[in-house]
Structures are given as C-alpha cells and as structure tokens.
Amino acid sequence: MATKKEQIEFVRKIYPAAARLYRAGGVHPLFVTAQAALESGWGDHAIGNNLFGITAGDKWTGKRRTERTFEYFSDDRQSGRFEKVYSITRTSDGRYRYEVDRKFRDYDTPEEGIRDHAKVLSAKRYAVAWAYRNDITRFAYEIAKAGYCTAEPAAYADLISKIARMIERA
Predict the structure, then answer these.
(1) What is the share, in percent, of the chain residues with pLDDT greater than 90?
(2) Backbone dihedral angles phi then psi of residue 71, each to the nearest 5 degrees
C-alpha cells in the first residue's frame, strides 16, 4: 500500500488531467482518480502509463505491452482468451482465478492514458452508467455491471467509493 505522501503525490499528478476531461464532458475527476489508484496500486503497477489496466484488443493500433496478470471468471473455460495461461484455480467463492499473459495498451504519458480511458468509458456498453457520471459509487457499479472488470459490481463500487473518500480527506 502506498504511503500517505505517495497517495497525495499520485492525486496531484492525476487529478488535474481528470478534471480537464471532466470539464470537456467526461466522468467526475474524483471517480477517475480513485479508479486509477485502485487499478494501478496508486501508480505502482501502471503498465506503460496505463493506469486503468486497459487491454489491447485486435482493433487497438497503438503500442502494446504483454504482462502477467490475474483475471476472475465464473467458469474454467476461458483459456482461449489469453496468449498464455499459467494456472486456473478455483476460489473459495466458486469462481476461477486465471494467471495469464495479457496484452495491455501502452501510453507515452499518464494524460494520454486518461484520455483513452475516457474514450473507453464512452462506449455504448457503458451508456447506462453515463446518467450517473457525477455519482462516483453508482457510476462504478454500472460500469462493473456492464463488464468493465471481473469484480462483482457492488464490491467494485465499494472499493472505488472507499478510495474516493481517502482522496477527499488527503
């Protein structure tokens, strides 16, 4: 876990870019900063300035980077989705934890990654969430429900909310 000083520095680095995008019609900057903190471990695990763990699908034409990561699914038939599977383990809640190699988008700057994140969130699959773009908890719940992550939507929303409160107090 990042120290309080590291957390404050992370917020100083990320929040201004998120606020600029918000003013241009984006998502609440506190949500963006909290999600970046969660997804990247306060910047410690950002993949090439990819603070959100955005994968690089076949249509992505930018830089890519392959990283070893963990993904969770309700079944053990997802191996074909990944370049390499190291293990599949059943978890105590009945889901399956995959340790895999996965391709991620690689950005030159954090701001470039934040801009692309805004584009990802503007996809049709997240349209329902946009009605809640100023409600951090509900927005997090709706994007998780729409498939943004493999976490359970309520748990994901709770984590984002907790981090947002930490940021507000910092």
Answers:
(1) 80
(2) -135, 150
Helices and strands (DSSP H and E) totals, the chain = 6, 3
Task: Give the pLDDT confidence score for residue 162 in this predicted structure.
Answer: 96
Q: Please check the confidence at residue 150 and state whether its pLDDT lies above 80.
A: no
Per-residue exposure over 45-81, b if at least 16 CB sit within 10 Å of its own CB, e if not: ebbbbbbbbbbbeeeeeeeeeebebebeeeeeebeee
**Distance set, CA 104 to CA 4, 5, 109, 135, 161 (Å):** 28, 28, 15, 28, 25
DSSP 8-state secondary structure symbol assigned to residue 163: H
What are the structure tokens assigned to 5, written together? 């000083």
Rounded distance, CA 22 to CA 85, Å? 38
Q: pTM of the full predicted structure?
A: 0.87
**Mean pLDDT across 133-150:** 94
Q: Which residues contact 111 (CB under 8 A, 6 or more apart)?
A: 17
Phi, psi torsion values for 52, nearest 5 degrees: -115, 0
Q: At what angle do helices 4-23 and 153-169 cross, to 10 degrees?
A: 100
111 burial via Cβ count (<10 Å: 0-12, 13-18, 19+): middle
Q: What is the pLDDT of residues 68-100, one digit of tens each?
A: 998 888 889 998 889 899 999 999 999 999 999
